[in-house]
Amino acid sequence: MANVCRTVGTDADLTASEAVAKIARGDLTAEALTRACLDRIAEIEDQVHAFAFVDPDLAISNAQAVDKAGDRGVIRGVPFAMKDIIDTADMPTGHGSSIYTGHRVAWDAPCVAACRAAGGVSFGKTVTTEFAHRHPNETRNPHNTDHTPGGSSSGSAAAVGAHMVPVAFGTQTTGSIIRPAAFCGTVGYKPSYGDFCTTGVRDNVPSFDTLGLIARSVDDLALFRAAVMALPHEPLDAVDVSALRIGFCRTAFWDKADAATQALLERTADAVSAAGAAVTDFDLPDGEATLPDEVVNVSGFEFSRVMTHERMAHKDQLSADLLDGRVADGLRCSYDQYRASEAVIRDYRQRAYAAMDGVDLLLTPSAAGEAPEGIAWTGDASFNNVWTTIHLPALTLPAGAGPTGLPLGVQLIGQLHRDHRMLSAAKAVQAAVLL
Amino acid sequence: MANVCRTVGTDADLTASEAVAKIARGDLTAEALTRACLDRIAEIEDQVHAFAFVDPDLAISNAQAVDKAGDRGVIRGVPFAMKDIIDTADMPTGHGSSIYTGHRVAWDAPCVAACRAAGGVSFGKTVTTEFAHRHPNETRNPHNTDHTPGGSSSGSAAAVGAHMVPVAFGTQTTGSIIRPAAFCGTVGYKPSYGDFCTTGVRDNVPSFDTLGLIARSVDDLALFRAAVMALPHEPLDAVDVSALRIGFCRTAFWDKADAATQALLERTADAVSAAGAAVTDFDLPDGEATLPDEVVNVSGFEFSRVMTHERMAHKDQLSADLLDGRVADGLRCSYDQYRASEAVIRDYRQRAYAAMDGVDLLLTPSAAGEAPEGIAWTGDASFNNVWTTIHLPALTLPAGAGPTGLPLGVQLIGQLHRDHRMLSAAKAVQAAVLL
């Protein structure tokens, strides 16, 4: 095993917000920051395997273009990486599958183009599991290279956690941002469904697919949110923790959380309460435990259709994880079952939103525990599935280490389309009890 | 002016259902049918300009492969065309824009792959307006080449109307299937939102984008629906018109319909009533007239983001129609306005579904009248917008000709996710009163 995570002692340690400020002051250039990230990659990438593609010359050239343009985009000069299911005009997009090795497209996905327009440095592509489903590729957890970084946004979480790049795009259809972000000790953000344009991002299950971000500070998420959505950047509001109403949601799957995670969550609930927040136990509406069965139908039906070309033309290059998993689920599911499950989910969303009416945030586990050993399994998504299914914004904050020294996280859930408020409240919670 | 529409007197006149039956009997091959379609194209394409790409050798080779495979897919041997915003592995995908002239991708969109898997012959790409927005390309209405075929699925409607291909894919974000289908004398079908997988189809406004079909018979829609959705083919049910409850919906925009269209709709309502259906006047819930204003916000917000790469990298190749239209709408709209409009629409949907509880079908205009003269304007979408916005399945049936001899259509609306029932009822209505 190796733990390659450390403070590097270079500009690679900067968060995006710190880098933007330093660049604005004239104390740093996009090129210098990009070179610092590339140096860090040169140092540890052979142990982490976070990147599906990074071309130093291209990254530096993109950085030089930003320095030369000189205008003040909100993320000016910040290198950002993209999960390798996101289209890019100047780098291959491989989808984590041998079917698309070296595959090139003619455009940047809107999220990439928007970040470039806001001054970001398009930096490299991060490893994804096969088509952002379960089958892993080679990425290792930088905190212990014998363990999974989680998936499917494996490389994004590992790269950001190991200070190889300050911010990376991930996507979540079940638990593919929050879980790896927690496993790698980073801040992960799954926006409200529909907020980030998913055009140019490979579909998995369109009803749930959510584009999001992995970073090392909550402020960075607000910054990149503004860039991605082409909205004015509004810094996070100063929130008084004592004004927050927080629901402690152990979920129907609490028994799946290990002792350290349960203790972490209880401790965090006590701490925010001690900081003055109104903390109450929060139960999701009836039907939570069986909701995953409905999700299996919807996910399977849609994913099996999305995968049609690859199933027909390249079946021998698809993993058994994929064919026997979500594809098989989908081919078993009739149209009526699909629509019945979708109706249950739609109804469940409305009931969940109503139940959350009196709370600002929910506090809940990010994952069942530390990153599992080995890289064959990316971990249990029981603590992520419901939030993705009901489209609510979710965030994981790093919260110390578990029994074997790997990172743990706590997850906060906000109200639908109140992401800025959730991020502001999360920053306050982090400052009050986690830092 | 030229009217190039006529019965060709070859297998190009066959509907997909007729062709499937003839092929199953051994009286026709995919190759012979494909050659008949190619002959028809050779005859009139220089006047109609329906195709963005058709390579006779490739189409024939695709047909030969189907003949050779010999298995019994539900659309075995039927050539189908694809609007040129739909990805294809063996043909360019140009999006109706000079930015993507000759643009190639590595895969078939799932809808194409599914039709190939079901025995269809991937035939060619049909002309779309620029990115399926308003700016037209060169397609002409085959019933009068001085007139627009409508848009944005211009080439699909023209090709099917002129017997160049039996079935073609279209997409609708406002009125882009139903209107051109009506203008070209064809049967157009916009499925319930979400039923047809839109992966691999260029996004326009993801909240409304709907993939659908243009054909020459209602049966063909059921056949292709099964193929596209990878579901068992269930022939349409025999429906007794006298058992139908039909709401006659003149809409808030009735005054925009010309006299011939108003008369056609009144006549059709009388005829289905005379055939025994329970016909009642149907008013959409309050808010119908202002719903388009909300749609402008949502459409603009999403489309302006979808178009980010092209706006940043190829702005000089975008039309003023696009930049000053939906993109400008979107850049004016704040996030809060976007979400407020989206909430109004979501609420409106639920009220509309409730209002439709007692009816099987709504009867409403397909368009304001005949296809307008000239090709600069693809026509008014007032009679399509609301149905796309509220996600209901819609169908247009050819219904005679207007004052200048161009086709008119009547539109039928079904209940959400009851498309098979809508198609069955529509077939009965067509047989009873329109044929």
Task: Please describe what this structure looks like.
Two copies of one chain form a homodimer. Chain A has 435 residues and is an alpha/beta fold. The first copy, chain A, folds into two domains: 1-282 and 356-435, Amidase signature (AS) enzymes (Alpha-Beta Complex), CATH 3.90.1300.10; 291-345, no CATH class. Helices cover 40% and strands 13% of the residues of chain A. Chain A is built from 14 helices and eleven strands. Chain A has an eleven-stranded mixed β-sheet with strand order 1-3-2-4-6-5-10-11-9-7-8, sandwiched between helices. In chain A, helix 9 (291-306) crosses helix 11 (320-332). The longest helix of chain A has 21 residues, at 335-355. The two termini of chain A are 27 Å apart. The mean pLDDT of chain A is 97. At the A-B interface, helix 4, helix 9 and helix 10 of A face helix 4, helix 9 and helix 10 of B.
